[in-house]
What we know:
The chain is α/β, with parallel strands linked by helices. The protein has helices at 18-32, 50-55, 58-77, 93-103, 124-131; strands spanning 6-10, 35-45, 48-49, 85-91, 108-112, 135-139. Strands 1, 2, 3, 4, 5 and 6 form a six-stranded mixed β-sheet that branches. The mean pLDDT is 83. Keywords: Cytoplasm.
Amino acid sequence: MALYQTILLSVNPDDIDAHKLMIKAGVVAEQNNAELHIVFVEPGVGNVSYMDVELGLEESHNDLELKRMNQLSELSKQSPYPVRAVHIADGGVTNHVIELAEKIKANLVMTGYHKNRFHWCNDISHDVAQEVKCDVMILQ
């Protein structure tokens, strides 16, 4: 019997360890015959990224979103197990990851250790682990 039916990997495609995280998530998903989803949230406030606040330009937002989707698509191709869906959002990382985990009924959220420059006390992974209603695996 599999422990997990749906796995959500929260990953930053610019992270040096993104490939390693994708491989690990793919292996765990394969071992559990689970649906594998990946998500990236462009850090910000509410549903707006900090980049949008700084630039205030729709065109640069669209370019950045296209770049992120391409990066995540390429990353998903590196998984040893098929990725069911790629998700992208802007704003509060913790809130978006938790909302998506609930929406897709994730049994496991996997994430790397993320020290956000805007969170001086906690890292994002710790915040997700404290609030999401499923297992969390924080990978190094």
